[in-house]
Amino acid sequence: MKQSTPPIEGVRIVLGDRSYDIDIGSALLAGLAAHKALPSGTAALIVTNDTVQPLYEKALVEALAGRYPVVHTVALPDGEEHKNWQTLNLIFDALLTHGCDRKVVLYALGGGVIGDMTGFAAACYMRGVPFVQVPTTLLAQVDSSVGGKTAINHPLGKNMIGAFYQPRLVVCDLATLDTLPARELAAGLAEVIKYGPIADMELFGWLEEHMDALLARERQALAHAVRRSCEIKAAVVGADEREAGLRAILNFGHTFGHAIEAGMGYGVWLHGEGVAAGMVMAAELSRRLGLVDEAFTQRLTRLIARAGLPTRGPVLDAQDNAGRYLELMRVDKKAEGGEIRFVLIDGPGKAIMRTAPDALVREVIAQCCAAA
Amino acid sequence: MKQSTPPIEGVRIVLGDRSYDIDIGSALLAGLAAHKALPSGTAALIVTNDTVQPLYEKALVEALAGRYPVVHTVALPDGEEHKNWQTLNLIFDALLTHGCDRKVVLYALGGGVIGDMTGFAAACYMRGVPFVQVPTTLLAQVDSSVGGKTAINHPLGKNMIGAFYQPRLVVCDLATLDTLPARELAAGLAEVIKYGPIADMELFGWLEEHMDALLARERQALAHAVRRSCEIKAAVVGADEREAGLRAILNFGHTFGHAIEAGMGYGVWLHGEGVAAGMVMAAELSRRLGLVDEAFTQRLTRLIARAGLPTRGPVLDAQDNAGRYLELMRVDKKAEGGEIRFVLIDGPGKAIMRTAPDALVREVIAQCCAAA
């Protein structure tokens, strides 16, 4: 694929002494050795998975070799179903087996699962060591590697055990997206689409125009989508790092989406796929509450479909599907006192948090699930 | 035992918006319901162990019943050997099974192990919920419940996985010490004694005079020991919350002590017992480096012995005991680049951090271990 090379762009996350840059560009891995923001240390540990390791480990090891006395790697099994304590412990095992001290720097080389686990391991190892995000999936570049949310799953709920812990730097090398499977590219687009309804309908319009270019992985289009997504996320995280309020809007589609992921078994639906179907459901709930019109829900559904993403949720329970969704959603981290707090769209481009009557939610689930 | 009741005393930990009080007094549990600093919430979860549960759970449940819509309890197996991920996960299981949301408040009712695990669970559950320390051992009252260090052990090292996470309140009810086994009372005295050499030889002199009263559990003496210990710890933690420097002096005796605990298998030696023998070793290393004289090391050894604590370390390896100690100490969190950084006494009442030649450390271990 012939590509024009976009220049390196930067977005800054402003959080006092925890501020950091997101670099966006092509072939950044090769230039990383000279980067001023790399934390110094006695050793580096690259955390990756067995899919990404053969593709990019060598380039990152070479880049870091000049900066650290020693560079180790640990490769975890790939997939959301491995985002648990047992896999996290492989990172601690590697750190302790190699005798890594408090001056070790962790590098997360992979997608959202690797980023979330590496960040949480960095937050906990010896009560905190620095880490750098090197996201190699679109989803991680536009969402999960930015903002310091780290976590692992518990069998009873997604991301239930974790920490707010900021990286020192995020390096989004667009060249790494060339090797991304089409299904994962689409899953990443779900999080890009998300930023439209909650914050920026201009981005949404741009996505409607450039969806084909994005699916063809044109660098200039990808660079714009990543940059704009990171800018919106930076503004939200900068205003509310620990999700006291505003930040929760970034979870549009995620309440239904997490239920889908947990209900199907982690790894069966990709996170972005759950979010895609979840956004359609949340939009429909917004419509039934009189917050948006049908033209909006249709427009959103159409764009999600064009990205190659599911627009309907799966049936989680043949007997009482809505009941199962509700049960799973009640353990969502945004729930309070058993009440589910949904992120809804209050007119295109603006998100709000609110509860909804169970009966209405049941109607939405009945309407929006596969076998309905 | 007839007791005069000391008044409630308070020590404040000053850490900006993470500041909190340590209350010290008798029969505080009963009065807890009216305490202004209890965080509000949708539920409380008392985390305790199977030894403490039959003694104090009822009183705490009654105190909290008026403050929370629902009060749950989870009892963990008792002992340092259970301070691991599997046991920690019992807390998460309880939280999720009870449908606890972000507004849950955790109560640590027990000793240092319960406090460390409850604090770490609070730090991680849904990325952070409030918690209160209700320490029921002397060790927890004078040391581990104060300052926000939380952690679990890894088979390759003690407290390797954890977080700096402050409680909202610490309630030291001296009445709970009445039921403490003599061996654990002594283990707590090790941490009280520690504050002398590193910071306050006046306290050390007071301990020499009042050791019998402390061993007899006289409330006035206990109140003074707990308050003075907390004051010293508050000053150190207030100056260096995240152990960038000064705070490490609180680990006097702990480098050798952690090696003893890990080398013997967690739970064989109590933490305070390891620290006691470790302080003798660290003092002897200080003497060999010319930092203190023999009169000081003898005075320290004598007070430790009077508290009923071990003054000699165990043999961890019959072939190469010093080698095994060194191996275990190299994974200490204070180590850097493979160099062990010892907390040493630079004249009574003043601690410093420094490295020491392996040969000298070997001599100290040979001199200070049981079979030497």
Automatic annotation (TrEMBL), chains A, B:
EC primary class: lyase
UniProt keyword annotations, A-Z: Amino-acid biosynthesis, Aromatic amino acid biosynthesis, Cobalt, Cytoplasm, Lyase, Metal-binding, NAD, Nucleotide-binding, Zinc
The keyword Zinc belongs to this UniProt entry's keyword annotation: yes
Domain of life: Bacteria
Transmembrane segments: none
Role of this protein: Catalyzes the conversion of 3-deoxy-D-arabino-heptulosonate 7-phosphate (DAHP) to dehydroquinate (DHQ).
HAMAP family hit by this protein: DHQ_synthase
Protein name per UniProt: 3-dehydroquinate synthase
